[in-house]
Amino acid sequence: MEYRRYASALAEAIRRRNLWMTLALMLGVSNLLLTGRLLTASTSERIIVTPATIGQAFWVHGEQVSREYLEQMGLFFSDLVLTYQKDNFPGRSALFLEHVDPRAHARLAATLRLEAERIERNSLAQVFHPLSVRVREADRQVAITGNRAPMVGEQLLPSQRVTYRLQFTYRDARLFVSEFGETDERDPFADRPRPPGPDAHADVGVNAGDALRPGG
Known about the structure:
The chain is an alpha+beta fold.
């Protein structure tokens, strides 16, 4: 009698052990499959972004960014430094510099500092009205054409049709401005060979000061 009771208890224990071992094995296999999935899954998923200051959604995919992203950020950054009053230019240019490529930061910061002094000294103001935007996604360039309406004190100067080029770099999931300045509307991305001369090797778009000056 005791032997039967012992044998029955032993069989039940073995059955429960086998059940738990089966469950543990299944959980282990499941964990291995999940780990393998995480290790082999693509990390370049398309991400939809809607920034607080811009209403239209755009995407980034690995090292690529959408046309909408470049267009909207080009308009945003150009507005920061091309539409201003004497009192708000320092703050707007400081915000612009927060998004400048570190390798170009010192150069553009010095240019904008001189521009702020010139604006303060001459009581300048300016409004830039964009008319068209051209985007070249391959190398993250944006060309914006519009009317620049400057003021000196209370005097409104004649408006000018101008084109600006912005060059962006994309690093660490952020878009940075690396070049910004005035360019030729007929050749906004400076693709045509330049004629020889003293300015043949000048990089149009690097000097933001030229872009900011109302009428020179």
